[in-house]
Write a structure and sequence with these properties.
By secondary structure, this protein is α/β, with parallel strands linked by helices. The protein has 24 helices and 23 strands. Helix 2 links the parallel strand 2 and strand 3. The two termini are about 40 Å apart. Belongs to the short-chain dehydrogenases/reductases (SDR) family. One of its GO terms (cellular component) is peroxisome.
Amino acid sequence: MSLSFEGRVVLVTGAGGGLGREYALAFAERGASVIVNDLGVDTKGGGKSSAAADKVVEEIRVKGGKAVANYDSVEDGEKLIQSALDAFGRIDVVVNNAGILRDRSFARTSDLDWDLIHRIHLRGSFLVTRAAWNHMKDQKFGRIIMTASAAGIYGNFGQANYSAAKLGLLGLANTLAIEGRKYNIHCNTIAPVAGSRLTETVMPPDLVASLKPEYVAPMVLWLCHEQCQENGGLFEVGAGWIGKLRWERSQGHTVREKNQPMTPEAVRDQWDKVCDFTDATKPSTVQESLQSIVSVLSRVESEGEVDANPTAAAASASGINPTEAVGQKLPPTTFSFNHTQCILYALGVGMSTKDPDHLRFLYEGHPDFGCLPTFGVIPSQAAMMDGGLSSIPGLNIDFTQVLHGEQYLELYKPLPTSGELTSEATIADVLDKGSGAVILLDVNTYSGSELVCYNQFSVFVVGAGGFGGRRTSEKAKAPLPPPKRAPDAVVIDSTTRDQAALYRLSGDWNPLHIDPSFAAMGGFKAPILHGLCSFGFAARHVLTQFADNDPSRFKAIKVRFVKPVMPGQSLQTEMWKEGNRIHIQCKVKETDAIVLAGAYVDLHSTSEDSPENLTQGGGLQSELVFAEIGRRIKDSGSELVKKVNAVFGWEITKDSKNAAQWTIDLKNGSGSLHTGPYSGKADVTFTVSDEDFMEVVQGKVNPQKAFFSGKLKVRGNIMLSQKLEVILKDYAKL
């Protein structure tokens, strides 16, 4: 579905040429009413003319668009916004693009050089945005773009004035993002690289010509659309490439003790540790930035001596130490079962003989008898239920404060209906959320030596935060918001009064779900339904609506648990289909309270698409290669993870169209192979045709030649391509 700006009013400053002109034309083409602002000055701020703005307005009107010109300086911000109100009655989007240059080496920069740059870039953006702000607040919608520069981010010789103003815009944008959030006003910053009057003074002519403004405008339009929820971001963009930037900070080192002076010699002696970016943190708020400093002060006053590492100090105080805990393995658990457990689970998540389609999961004599895919959480939960976390060093936590926050499950083959499964659990990461700690527990479940499924439990420990750890983790399987449109399907299913009593027989014996007195101690009026029971209901609904009730179509599910459900309430599952990914949101029908959010189910297109059923008849030769890689990962995954430690994405094309997507995860657990959309993030992604892929892996074409000829495209950490030989040559014996 294309992005429309019908009904939106957009102001673009400096829109008489270059990037601004391209923004104005692009917004108008998609239905926006546009105020084309341009003072008509030269690149140094001299002169004045209405011709530039008038020409762009005429271009828009000739194409049937709506636009008016404005010739005021951005220092007259109120006049610019009034033009929008007079012409169109509102203001929705402000793109602060106007700018000039007065490049001088620092020693030669005059007061005028400094002041004029700041007046146009920083003060001008402030004045225009301030004039629009209250209008955006009143209408509960606004999108603002600030234009920074690589010179502001990194510095550039001869541009001290320009660099200072451009980085000042980033600080302004970050604060506006915070203040505007509750009013649905989002503010983002871009550092564009494009050919314009400004960049032609610092770039070679041929480069200016190739860096076209139309390679930047789509990014600006997306950030300004109502569907886009990005806020407070900083992006470099140019030539069709977009990258997001963030701050990174070393763990740091404390160089003083109580009642002892802090000396420059102490700083010198610990300088290498101060600058060591091993296990660097990525603070994103002032509060996160101050955590380490506050923890140091607390330790100084309470114990008289400061630990060298403030994170470790805070960890000791909170009972959580990520350095000790992460990577620790829990004792393996074994789960023996037969068809009885499979049927009991199906009943526990709401299946009934009243529905003929449910019989295949309820009757062991059915010709298609099988196990519900979400039964995959049951063998793995023993790692949580059997007290394994209490044995982990660095996790001294109060287990009465433990909540199940999120769950991810991925199947590598359909679950058996009987047998013995072994689960191996590892502490993948421990995160500091301030009010609590999040423990990421990765669990791989095997049938013999064959990997059957992978679970990631996200456990929130109330009150265990503040130990100075990282707030986010790339290892976490992230929840995703549903599309901004009406759901494609809605299913309403009633739970019974005894739903929790029935579900607990599958192994979750927590008395919170059965004992009224225990539930009362937790603040509930009555026992609540298991979150994983709602999880099972929602997955069933997706299978019914989009997979013909075929469990072999199921690939993965991710949910975030939001609020409890009371047994007897009705669950309403809303579903949005986006390719093979079904976004879901689950509510209590009676209260409209969301209980599962950020959720999705990934499906195989057909049963033949699953890794278990790849054949040469699928039309892609590369399928055989990935099938072999998958088998090798199952046999030697742990060894490969040690050698490679990366996630590789593959986009295979045929006849210039995307034909298949594969992800080789050799970073997490014992390694895994995924087909279709991948919920995590690849370190490097390769795009290549099926034919060229086979030429490369068979050694007929040198990968470097394929890259430089354009046959093999790479994005991400290109240096990791050196490790491909380990995967393709040593382990995919063709």
